[in-house]
Amino acid sequence: IQQKLDLLKNNAHNTVNSLLDTLALNLAAKVDDKIANGETIGLLEGIPFGIKDVYMLQGSYTTASSNLLKNYKSAYTATAIQKLLDAGAIPIVKENCDSFGHGSSSENTIFGAVKNATDTNLVAGGSSGGSAVNVAKDFTVFSIGGDTGGSVRQPAGYNNIYGLKPSYGRISRYGLMAYASSTDCVGPLAKSIEDIRIVLNIMSGKDAKDQTSYASAEINEDSILNSDSIKTVGYFKNFIESDAIDVQVKADFLATIEKIKAKGITVKALDFFESETLVSTYYTLAMAETASNLSRLDGTNYGNRIEAENLKETYAVTRSENFSEETKRRIVGGNQVLSQGFSDEIYLKGLAIRNQISENFNNDFNEVDIILSPVTPSTPPKIGDSLKDPHAMYLSDAYTVGFSLGQLPTLTIPQGTATGLQITAAKKNDELVLKFANFLK
Ligand code: GLN
Q1: Which terminus in the chain has less CB density within 10 A, N or C?
Q2: What class of enzyme is it (predicted)?
């Protein structure tokens, strides 16, 4: 209880979820019984974990940290979460985040800004900030975040833990509240590569309820220990030479590169798209998708309905009163991008650049096995600062969004004093990412 109260100071938790407490206690009692009966228990049985508050868990509140869904109770359970429950893991908390995943700081939430695990004056990062802080503070052994454009990797980096965005489709999205469906990924955060591997294996697999999901082979423990197949590593020159990069982030990254060379790996500097291009392509598509996905939230079937004179007014008032400023900015932007007269020029152009980005990655992975990058150009800002300038906040996503558009597997590992190292491999090669992380240890 003391630990839970301490954590409330970081705002990592959402609604004090007594329903969840009851579920957790019941599950824990079953594990206790098994142990008392001398039965052997599975690897995850009794292990406490956290869930970003955008996943359905039947009977619990799923608020997306938004006023609109403040009182919404999940009617079913997400596939990825169900697989963890089936393995005996115990969900103990729904975690605070930027509402609907919109943000990079976990300040865009009705539950108060999430505070960084090491310095409470700083943001935890986002949007899966609560998930990262709970792991960093040992309240959960692992947490399940959601990563659309960096939301697992960036808070993992800001809180010095591990966070994986698997290949798009490796884990079913069924029951993850959709933000941008073409890049949304279910992603674990934990304190070790081994924990990431175990949880990834359990959640992976084809699901009839998500047509973009695919079947994948289990990644076994021994295969990660052998990194012989990794000969060449690349990094993007323009990321490291950019004026926007913090000196410490750059120094730590270059120190890692030296360490890799000393281990006999060839390192290549690669060309890549400018930050502005990556960020504007990602936000064009993500806003279009979120405007479309969130159109269902009008107070008719879900959420906090605010009655007005007529139906149209009811929709308008419900949405304008309940969505945050940031979410409204994205809905307005997204609808503009999709509207007649603009969609060819903006949306279709965004799709075309996305194809070029993917093409670029295909060429890169003919030359290198792994691509490395810092997770962010700078260290975590003070609470309040990123709210002042949305464009600056979007630009802070420059190093993560390209890999999302490419649907690649990419993992944050702690790195020196700065904000984490991002390890990326070709699509569906999640195993190689974990191998390389282990090799660097
Ligand atoms: N910061 C990015 C955005 O706001 C990524 C968020 C996410 O991955 N959910 O879109």
Answers
A1: N
A2: ligase
Asked if 202 contacts 216 with a C-beta cutoff of 8 angstroms, the reply is no
Stated pTM of the model: 0.96
* Tokens read off for 198: 């175990």
How far apart are the CA of 179 and the centre of ligand 1, in A? 9
Q: Say how many domains are in the chain.
A: 1
* Ligand 1 binding pocket includes 147 (Cβ within 6 Å): yes
Q: Give the Cα separation of 415 and 258 in Å (integer).
A: 13
- pLDDT digit string, tens, across residues 78-111: 999 999 999 999 998 999 999 999 999 999 999 9
Within a domain: 180: yes
Query: Does some domain include residue 291?
Result: no
The number of residues in the chain equals 441
Q: What is the ipTM of this complex?
A: 0.98
Q: Is the CB of 150 under 6 A from ligand 1?
A: yes
- Please report, in angstroms and rounded to a whole number, the separation of the first and last CA atoms in the chain: 34
37 in any annotated domain: yes
Annotated catalytic residues are 52, 127, 151
pLDDT for 378-428, tens place per residue? 999 999 998 889 999 999 999 999 999 999 999 999 987 778 999 999 999
Q: Which of 66, 98, 376 to mutate to test the pocket of ligand 1 (most atoms within 8 A of CB)?
A: 98
Question: Domain of 103: which CATH number?
Answer: 3.90.1300.10
For all residues of the chain together, what is the average pLDDT? 94
Domain extent, residue 52, equals 2-223
